[in-house]
Amino acid sequence: MRARFLFLLAACVSAPALAQHQGHGARPPAPRPAPPSPCPPANPPAAGHSAHASSPAPESCSVQAPAPTPAPDPHAGHAATPATHPPADSDPHAGHAMSRPTPAPPPATTDPHAGHVMPAQPPAPSPPAAGADQHAGHAMPTQTATPAPADPHAGHAMEEPAAPPVAPPPPEALSGPVHAADLAYDPADMARARAEERRVNGAIPQSRFLIDRLEVAIGEGRDAYAWDDVQFWYGGDIDRLWIKSQGEGEFGGALESAEVQALWSRAISPWFDVQAGARYDFAPDPRRAYLVLGLQGLAPYWFELDTALFVSNKGDVSARFEAEYDLRITQRLILQPQVEADFQLQDVPELRLGSGLSTAELGLRLRHEFFPARAPAVLAPYVGVSYERAFGDTAAFRRAAGERAGGWRFLLGVRTWF
Length: 418
Known about the structure:
Layout: H1 2-20, H2 187-200, E1 206-219, E2 224-235, E3 239-250, E4 255-267, E5 272-283, E6 288-299, E7 303-312, E8 317-325, E9 327-328, E10 333-344, E11 356-368, E12 378-390, H3 392-400, E13 406-417
Antiparallel strand pairs: 1-2, 1-13, 2-3, 3-4, 4-5, 5-6, 6-7, 7-8, 8-10, 9-10, 10-11, 11-12, 12-13
């Protein structure tokens, strides 16, 4: 018994020394075997050939279990002699090309309701129809606009502001001569220059002779001749002397009428002249003289007017109105309508004239104007027609004398001026 106790005591004392030298020159401890894996090996020893296709691992084996934590080595830090390991057996399939396993496609999920007939959906209910407007057809009352308040000052006469005072010109402004040029030049020379300027600009004397109508009238009875509006004037643009004449008669008969007028004319506008003078009738008998007051000019739209009022030495009052218009078909072919009317204030039996509208004449003449290069005058022959008629007591006087009251005539004539 005592011997066993000593043996145990010696063993306990020698245990630490043995532990210090435990593993010197010894092999390292074999690794702890890994727990068996539920998944088969990816490459079994016989599956390394390229001609063999490996079966894919199941899905449940794709996740590897975590490796166990190794226990701490009690001899860590000791310089141990490396142990000589026996050479490992060579892999009989080393160097063989391993083919990569092809994953199988996941199986298609089958619709659990495939082939089932779905019941038809009932149609959605339509929205309810809108109800009728309860106020349809009702007349809405018209809104009455509120009148704006009246202006308390409406209708009051506002006083206009007074114009600023205008001072009179200084006395020195009117102290010099009427024409300032007289201060620098001889006043007599300047007066002659101003007179010449007035003459050149509007007072140059000019003249014109015009035979407006010199014609033969062919109609019932005897053929007749006439001259009308034979005019001559002399003067400037403002003041002129006019000589006018007209008359008619029958071929082989007596002169029926002839007159001449001497008038002084003054321009009252760019278009009209006022004329005053005397008239003397050579036929018919008894001869008479008249005072004349007339107006002659160019009316709007280019109508030529010639009006006159006559008062005879016997107290007879008469008037004459004449108008004509030149309608240019071409530059030289002109159509001229013309109207003339005579009025009497009272009956004049000795002249076979009645009061009122005594005679009227309408004429239409077509002329062609010629401008000869060397001739001093312009010639314009024409053809036309005219209708002349007497009215009232004048027509009665003619019928009593065995004459017609009026009729048509064919005209051939010439118009000229220079």
